[in-house]
Amino acid sequence: MMHDKAMKDERRTDELWRWTAGELAQGIRTKAISSREAVMNCLNRIYKVNPHVNAIAEVLAEDALQAADMADYAVFKGEELGPLHGVPIASKINSNQAGLATTDGVVAAKDNIANTDSPSIANLRKAGAVFVGRSNVPSFSLRWFSNNDLHGKTLNPWDSSRTPGGSSGGASAAVASGMVPFAQGNDIGGSIRYPAYACGIPGIRPTIGRVPTWIGTDDVDPTLAVQLMIAEGPLARSVGDLRLGLSVMSALDPRDPIQSPAPITGETLQRPIRVGLLRDVGVVKPEPAVNQALDDAASYLSDAGYIVEEVELPLFAEAYKLWYLLALEDLISLKPLIEQYGDEGAKINFKYNCEIAEKWWGKPSLEKYKQGYARRHTLIMQLQQFLEKYPVLLLPISSEQAFKQDADIESIENNRRLLDAQWSMMAIPVLSFPAMSVPISVFEGLPTGVQLLGRRFREDTLFDAAEAIEARANIPTPINPSFD
Q1: How, if at all, do strands 274-277 and 392-395 pair?
Q2: How far apart are CA 280 and CA 316, in angstroms?
Q3: CATH code linked to domain 13-470
Q4: Residue 223: other Cβ atoms inside 10 A
Q5: Among the four residues 168, 298, 362, 370, which has the most C-beta atoms within 10 Å?
Q6: Which residue is catalytic, options 120, 139, 191, 250?
């Protein structure tokens, strides 16, 4: 019996890349494993899998091993350890990390070396995390496909013909295929939630002001949409790791003028908790696989004691189109840069997005822009009142499973179809409530999942509901690429 246990432990240690971030942190803290073992295990997994998936744009092997050795020495000396001490993770290549290039998938930015860490990177570093690589993004981080001329195309480990999502597509593909247990991402139009969905892992877009966010340099003034809609958050293979990651990433940073010191856990909600099930807001009907995922999630929540009731909330359709007035108008300032330095996919997608938005809103004007932000306030108020009765909302991430690669640039008609399928991806940043992607099962070889939305600064209620779903879901990550 002892021999069998030793063999099991040895085999388990040989596959540290399968462990969650929480398991690795506990193992390192208790000296059951070393940080060097964990980091080396993940690096070996990167060397094996990344050539097939291209999720990690830059491998940081030398720095990571040095950091791992320092982490192990700190354990040996009995120093105070952070929650992610010695754990290998990935950072997104559109986020500043001191001494490394913030390329954002743009060839012209390949030597854009950052002097300081962005707040989320700094908080992860303070928590003891070891950065083993930088994850890929689309050019300018503006597509749901993580392809660019500088770092190449990231593939979905479930199916190479499908997108891994964007802009955190490299992050989601790396986590899903076992290269890292945890990755940092950001989201202004689905860039955490959609990649997590496409690759079958959980990911959360927190409340605006929960995680400190800082874009660019001290001499750059972020646009209003960036200030009010972009959120930093984690992607992982377990809801527990999202809890851990969010608590770490939420440490206060003076560079963010709107960050709030709200508690991670709020007051206990009155039970039974009501969940509103929202399938269709009048934009496009979900495919059968998406409807089945919603039905399964509703069943799991009901079995866990929640009361799930179908609801209607047409305000989401309005908020979806509002994104293309408020956020896209702010992004117009990037148009000259995209036209000069963007790859072909970025140029075509942005052109189509602008043409579709103009059909909805006409030529942008200051008056329309002001009216749009006034309307945003009213929609937020309406949703906030709705959440008094239904503290959790269950809804689709997309009306379809993961898109075929480059589907957004096939034609303007196809681009519009994708925009409609992603109505919740755009509506939620406008409304600025927390939302997360929760995987459910595999349908015809591709993962399916659902989205949970909750009250502001009540990510804890989403984690609780997500764990009830996770306990019944059947997503076998980490996976080996199906085309390996």
Answers
A1: parallel
A2: 10
A3: 3.90.1300.10
A4: 19
A5: 168
A6: 191
